[in-house]
Amino acid sequence: MSQQSIFITGGGSGIGRATALLFARKGWRIGLADVSAAGLAETAALLPEGASTYVMDVRDRDAWVASLDAFTAVTGGRLDVLFNNAGIGSGGPLATTDFAEIDRVVGVNLVGVLNGAKIGHGYLKRTPGSCLLNTASASAIYGSSGLAPYSATKFGVRAITEALDGEWAGDGIKVRAIVPSFIDTPLLNTTAGGSNRSIRETVTGAGLELTGVEAVADAAWAAVHGNAVHTYVGKTAHRMAFAARWMPGSLRKRMRRSVKR
Questions:
Q1: Residue 184 neighbours by CB under 8 Å, 6+ apart
Q2: What's the CA angle centered on 87, arms 126 and 140, to 5 degrees?
Q3: Domain coverage including residue 252
Q4: pLDDT confidence of 42, banded at 50, 70, 90?
Q5: How far apart, in whole angstroms, are the C-alpha atoms of residue 81 and residue 123?
Q6: Catalytic residue numbers?
Q7: Prediction pTM value
Q8: Which CATH number does the domain housing residue 175 bear?
């Protein structure tokens, strides 16, 4: 059997990098895409056999086609996993957030995932047992105060995953999402919306814990090889999922408290 392959967006840092390291240790061929050429080079240098790297913005549909064409050319046509992981953060009150910032978050986090799914479908369909893996967030369990655009996009990623799980079953393509707690990466240092508070401060102010990237990479492996549509990662995600189902009022109070801090 030829070497299995995974194409990871947002592969220049954070979850993407940690996932590349794990899958490389398992013997997979790695394709990395990111807007940062430096980040891609850093990740590739950490992998035992390197990686195929593509400087790419997930909003650019032509770049998607060019990158997947190039990657599958070196994998013998295989694309076992397309990991729609690239994303950006945005924190602050919606009322003071620039429309340009809202458009940027929606474009990368939501439209970028739709681009990857639609364009990636044909490549995945040619590989038996393939999987589309999406990165959602605990912010897709219950809307997070101070993170309205981000939460909206991650709810959308969750919906895309559920819809395509049914839509693509007949094509033999698994569709999965990881739903991690807020991850301790530089993404959390982002501020927006005229606020001096970072996403990190917003999250910790709501009493939510942060999760390490290695735990998310392990969850990505489990999601690809398991049957659950959504794989929750970290204590915060599990607690929020439980509360959203059984104690939604407590989450509502928590989000209101987080705004006052």
A1: 210, 211, 212, 213
A2: 95
A3: 5-260
A4: very high
A5: 10
A6: 150
A7: 0.87
A8: 3.40.50.720
